[in-house]
Design a protein that fits this description.
This protein is mainly α. The protein has one domain. The chain is built from 5 helices and 4 strands; from the N terminus they run ααββαααββ. The strands form 2 sheets. Strands 1-2 form a two-stranded antiparallel ribbon. Strands 3-4 form a two-stranded antiparallel sheet. A hairpin with a 5-residue loop joins β3 and β4. α1 packs across α2. The protein is globular and about 50 Å long. The two termini are 13 Å apart. 16% of the residues are buried.
Length: 141
């Protein structure tokens, strides 16, 4: 499945070209200091406003129940989507902005924080493995 097919699957009716154009535009709004790495991978730092939004909502060194983490992710994604729409100088599809923001937040939290699932006795039930870069991920065009 191509990247744009993922968004179209969620009801975005824009053409694949317009989806890609809007994603690139949104990336330009939220990232600074981008550099190219080997294999066509880019490394970018989120702008100060994005980091402020994220760290405003994330409690550090605290175990979180899945429901609480889900709420935090949604709160950050909503605030980020509103920031993107505020910063944009061109019309963007609001649903695409929301999906982009959620995907960005979810991936960022996965890369910034260690996520482990504990059973009721406090033992680690499952620890995620390192995953290779996914070229079909809609966050990366």
């Amino acid at each position: 499945m191509k990247i744009t097919d993922t968004y179209q699957h969620f009801g975005i009716t824009l053409s694949p070209e317009l989806i890609q154009e809007q994603i690139i535009y949104m990336q330009g709004l939220i990232f600074t200091q981008c550099s190219s790495l080997d294999g066509g991978i880019y490394k970018c730092a989120p702008c100060a406003e994005v980091l402020e939004i994220m760290f405003k909502h994330i409690p550090l060194n605290e175990a979180l129940e899945p429901e609480v983490l889900s709420t935090i992710i949604l709160d950050i994604a909503e605030e980020l989507a509103l920031l993107i729409l505020e910063l944009a100088n061109e019309d963007l599809d609001p649903r695409l902005v929301g999906l982009f923001a959620y995907d960005f937040v979810f991936q960022s939290l996965q890369s910034l924080f260690e996520v482990e699932i504990f059973d009721e006795g406090g033992e680690v039930q499952k620890s995620p493995s390192d995953k290779p870069y996914d070229t079909n991920d809609p966050m990366f065009v």
